[in-house]
Amino acid sequence: MKIVIAEPLHPAGIEVLQAQPGWEIIVSSPGEYERHLEDADALLAARSAQVTAGQIEAARNLKVIAFPGSGSDFVDVEAATAAGVLVMNLPGESAVSVAEHTLGLMLAMARQIPQAIESTRSGKWDAKRFRGTELRRKTLGVMGLGSIGREVVRRARAFEMRIIANDPYVNSETAADLGVTLVSRSDLFAQSDYITLHVALTTETMGMLNETAFAKMKKGVRIVNCARGELVDIEALRHAIEAGKVAGAALDVLQTEPPQAGEPLLAMDQVLATPRIGASTEEAAELMAVHLAQHVVEYLNEGVAVNAINVPAMSEEAYRAVAPYAVLAERLGAFAAHVATGNPKLMRLVYHSAMPPQNTRLIRNAGLAGVLSRSFERKANVVNALKLAARRGLEHAERFERPTGHTDTIRIELETDKGTTTVEGAIVLDQPRMLAVDGIRCEAGLTGHVMFFSIQDVPGVMGYIGAVMGKNNINIATLSMGRQEKAAGNQPVMATIVIETDQQVTEPVIAQLLENKAILVARPVEFRT
Q1: Where would I find the beta strands (DSSP E) of 326-475?
Q2: 8 A C-beta contact, residue 432 and residue 409
Q3: Considering only CA atoms, which of 240, 243, 241, 192 is closest in space to residue 218?
Q4: Which one, of 491, 404, 391, lies nearest residue 441 by Cα?
Q5: Do strands 344-352 and 409-416 pair parallel, antiparallel, or not at all (unpaired)?
Q6: For residues 97 and 280, what is the distance between their CA atoms, to the nearest angstrom?
Q7: 239-245-247 Cα angle (round to 5)
Q8: How many CB atoms sit inside 10 A of residue 170's CB?
Q9: How far is CA 120 from each of CA 125, 127, 382, rounded to the nearest angstrom?
Q10: 396-416 pLDDT per residue, tens
Q11: Which residues contact 395 (CB under 8 A, 6 or more apart)?
Q12: Distances in whole angstroms, Cα of residue 109 to Cα of each of 51, 118, 190, 224, 295
């Protein structure tokens, strides 16, 4: 594996990557990393490294782009998805650092600390000029109760502040547990002495603090923004300060970074600005680097995608529970696609499981990726499967049925323009296993080089297959066979054979196998690892 690091990363994170046997770690810079991407498996980037569609397209081996924080606007996520490249972030790891910085800025505004320091340095000793206010009994309005917002709340409570919040994704019970009252955005503006922003940048939140918002606020309000600069209309903020509506603003982020020389807002005494240092602590840097590196290792080694933003979202616990079934679905889909006749039109996933429906999206994507692997080889995966399926006109459906036999089984019904192929499987001893093909019981592994046979179960067929394999120096590792319970009319009983071989079975060998008229179908399946 080749890992390219486009930004300075804490040594502890680099050590995690270097501990992987055979991994090549390239530590580069935002201006230089692109030349290392051509054969890279992973890119660890940050905001100053703009990851474009052209770079992603040129990096043919790229599997994952990972970065700290939550914002992803510096990565062309759509291009990454189309290329099957996982994009993962690391939200919340710096929550304590950002929350502490937020409270620090609030205190700095309340007590005019930067101004007092500057005055003292100039030789003055003017205590009366810098009479401040307490945070105690003031109302703090928190926009967004994600990981950072919650840490801010916990610390603000120690200052005996009254805390209100606005977050459409948090219910009143959760808010009550935090000691917070949920209010509308308008009520938050009207009631707050301090307003702090901890929301993601979306079309709904962009410019949320604008002229209309400032007009709703109480006179003397103070603003803190340690989230995204685009959340605040800086012209509207400047006018609100000039009008006396806003008593102060503390900004760790700006619309334009770095700001233009002579930016009027930054020249105002009521404005404190820091150069995006909210998450910049030694502790946060180490924690983020280690966890980011661990997540990259888990994805490349085990396929476990934590904090992925372009695959179905779920908790790490839910992902680990579902991941084995995603592997199973991918293998079953690949098997069905390779043994089916005709062009796939519909993949139907049938779950004999108590699994919650909302947790099956990853399994669905994996099944589609398996079906598509026949055409796209290594390009189809859980990241781009939906897009590739739509492009190919491959529809999908899901159905839940009562569990039978094995507690949790998955059946894929692949409809083509020539008929339907059905394969069923389960996780057995932590490994994906096939249980049946077209209703015939035949348990087999789903790894490596596999051959599928549909035969008339007459004397000599099994020996013939073994003889052809032996003549061509192909070793049979495992063999499974199942047969119809009853023949149709005067026809021989039909049987299914699945064998795993140590060597790949080539087309000339398959042609030899099909010379036996009792062998109706002989198809190879190569499983991706």
Answers
A1: 344-352, 395-401, 409-416, 419-428, 431-437, 440-445, 449-456
A2: no
A3: 192
A4: 404
A5: antiparallel
A6: 7
A7: 100
A8: 18
A9: 6, 10, 60
A10: 999 988 776 656 899 999 999
A11: 345, 346, 347, 389
A12: 37, 14, 20, 9, 39
Q: What is the mean pLDDT of residues 59-77?
A: 86
Q: What pTM value is reported for the model?
A: 0.66
Position 373: which residue type? Answer: S
Distance between CA atoms of 164 and 152, rounded to whole angstroms? 12
Q: Do 43 and 4 meet the contact criterion of CB atoms below 8 Å apart? A: yes
The span from the CA of 1 to the CA of 64, in Å, is: 12
Calculate ∠ Cα 30-33-35, nearest 5°: 140
Question: If you compute the radius of gyration of the chain from its CA atoms, what whole number of angstroms results?
Answer: 30
> What's the pLDDT at 1?
93
CB atoms within 10 A of CB 12: 14
Task: Report how far residue 62's alpha carbon sits from residue 43's, in angstroms, rounded to the nearest whole number.
Answer: 8
Q: What are phi and psi of 7, to 5 degrees?
A: -135, 155
Q: What confidence score (pLDDT) does residue 355 get? A: 66
Tell me the CA distances in angstroms from 511 to 418, 450, 477, 523, one per residue in order. Answer: 22, 16, 21, 10
Show the tokens assigned to 32.
């230089």
Residue 480: beta bridge partners? 498
Tally of residues, the chain: 529
Whether 56 has a pLDDT exceeding 70, the answer reads yes
**Domains contained in the chain, CATH given:** 2-91+283-302 (3.40.50.720), 95-273 (3.40.50.720), 313-446 (3.30.1330.90), 449-529 (3.30.70.260)
Tell me which residue has tokens 């192909």.
Answer: 474
Q: Count Cα neighbours of 147 within 13 Å in the Cβ-side half-sphere.
A: 12
Q: Are 425 and 351 in contact (CB under 8 A)?
A: no
Within 10 angstroms of residue 480's Cβ, the number of other Cβ atoms is 17
Q: What per-residue confidence (pLDDT) applies to 374?
A: 79
Least confident of 126-140, 280-294, 343-357: 343-357
Q: How many CA atoms lie within 13 A of 518 on its CB side?
A: 17
